[in-house]
Design brief:
Chains A, B: InterPro entries: DtxR_MntR_Metal-Reg, Fe-transptr_FeoA-like, Fe_dep_repressor, Fe_dep_repressor_sf, FeoA_core_dom, HTH_DTXR, Iron_dep_repressor, Transcriptional_repressor_C. The structure is a homodimer of 221-residue chains. With 221 residues, the first copy, chain A, is an alpha+beta fold. Among the domains of chain A are: 60 residues, Orthogonal Bundle (Arc Repressor Mutant, subunit A); 72 residues, Roll (SH3 type barrels). The first copy, chain A, has 8 helices and 7 strands. In chain A, strands 6-5-4-3-7 form a 5-stranded antiparallel beta sheet. Chain A has a two-stranded antiparallel ribbon with strand order 1-2. In chain A, a hairpin with a 5-residue loop joins strand 1 and strand 2. Chain A is globular. Chains A and B meet through helix 5 and helix 6 of A and helix 5 and helix 6 of B. The site of one manganese (II) ion (MN) has 6 residues of chain A, from helix 4. The structure holds a DNA duplex (30 and 30 nucleotides).
Chain lengths: 221, 221
DNA sequence: CATAATTATTAGATTAGTCTAAATTTTTAT
DNA sequence: ATAAAAATTTAGACTAATCTAATAATTATG
């Protein structure tokens, strides 16, 4: 007996979840409106509805935050989204820049069993094609340490473990430079004036802008 | 550049398609209302909208029929539904009585490439788990010959190739009697008063009601 | 701290899909 | 051929999600 939410409600919860992750303050109406590509007035209406259903805490003019129940639902949607992305890349041979839009739809499929069966079929992946962690059945999720390539010191080596920006453009850029999850990178030098860095990757030197390096999650080796 | 229909519109077109298959007359408002589990007045409204968009031909009080364009869309939905059902049964190990509801949702996922990639991943199945034919990419579909087990003469043998009723109850009944697609059946005798028949299957005799036998598609051997 | 700028909420419409109840048309049966 | 029954459409209302324009609250700034 699942609580039946509309796709729209689910999307709002997911957006609030992701905005909470990156700010720790209450989520503002305007920010949520931007994320949802809608108007602030629409957001206010929806927020009231979600508050009535106890998925968010809301006080007028003070933004929203997810309740325990709201968080649980948001994490479930994230889990579904990421598992479907793994399916699309690993089984259907999509590339990592093509799967997000389809997963946005698939994440709303309702079934008590489907996603667990899918997870098993995919052999319990821990991360999605963009390096984002996949919550388990109980909703536990291991968060990134959030070390960006831009903060790695000169002479240090690291492994690319995720992308912060999952836009198709960024991912295609990475493909073109042969940078992918698991790539080993050594920082050779850093320019002070624009924060661009020179890295060694695949035995070659490559110069990348700050814009790029600050969107790559790494693990220091 | 696909024409974007709502899920509801797609479901109406699919229902009209299936009702047209089983009657050859125009589809009446009442019949469509029953199929869609809605009211006749709602159907009238939707029919007008679909007629405006040229997916159906409609004259007041005279029922509807699909246009070429409407038919094309309906067949696409059927294709998606059936391929997803194959995925659920063959890859995720669902049984044939569990997949319909989930496929009802999955059939509405929009993507120009997804279903063709799925079809390839499934190795181009020709029939779904209930024996229904899967339209190809171009919308070509091979229809059943529609021979029912109930019409097979005594002493004749046949192979079960499909079910007309795909309800979970019926499918579970078949499972319990170990009747499945591909089963070879010989008609031993027929009762005149209730049309029940005795068949030989799996080297055993089994008596089945008319209700059952008229819902099984067969191929005479 | 007062006023301006920004942010958020409310008021009132709109669209899709649905419903009930009333009116109309078609079909069936005398 | 007419009246009764059944099917269908129309009228008017409701919910979910959205929008624009107007109002109100918060915050930033001189
Ligand atoms: Mn994604
Ligand atoms: Mn992802
Ligand atoms: Mn089905
Ligand atoms: Mn089927």
């Amino acid at each position: 007996m699942e609580i039946q939410l509309t796709q729209t409600e689910e999307n709002y919860l997911k957006s609030i979840y992701s905005l909470e992750l990156s700010s720790s303050k209450n989520v503002s109406t305007t920010l949520l409106a931007k994320k949802m590509k809608t108007k602030a007035s629409s957001v206010t209406d929806m927020i009231k509805k979600l508050a009535d259903k106890d998925f968010v805490d809301y006080k007028k003019y003070r933004g929203v935050s997810l309740t325990k129940g709201g968080n649980t639902i948001a994490v479930k949607i994230v889990r579904k989204h990421r598992l479907w992305e793994v399916f699309l890349v690993n089984k259907l041979e999509y590339s990592w820049d093509e799967v997000h839009e389809i997963a946005e739809q698939l994440e709303h499929i309702k079934s008590d069993t489907l996603i667990d069966k899918l997870e098993e079929f995919l052999e319990f992946p821990t991360h999605d094609p963009h390096g984002d962690p996949i919550p388990d059945k109980e909703g536990n999720i291991e968060h990134h340490k959030n070390i960006m390539l831009s903060s790695v010191k000169v002479e240090n080596s690291c492994k690319i473990i995720g992308v912060k920006d999952s836009s198709s453009e960024f991912l295609k850029y990475l493909d073109s430079k042969n940078i992918h999850l698991g790539s080993i990178v050594k920082v050779i030098s850093k320019e002070v004036f624009d924060n661009s860095i020179t890295i060694e990757i695949n035995k070659q030197l490559l110069s990348i802008s700050h814009q790029i390096s600050k969107n790559l999650f790494v693990k220091i080796l």
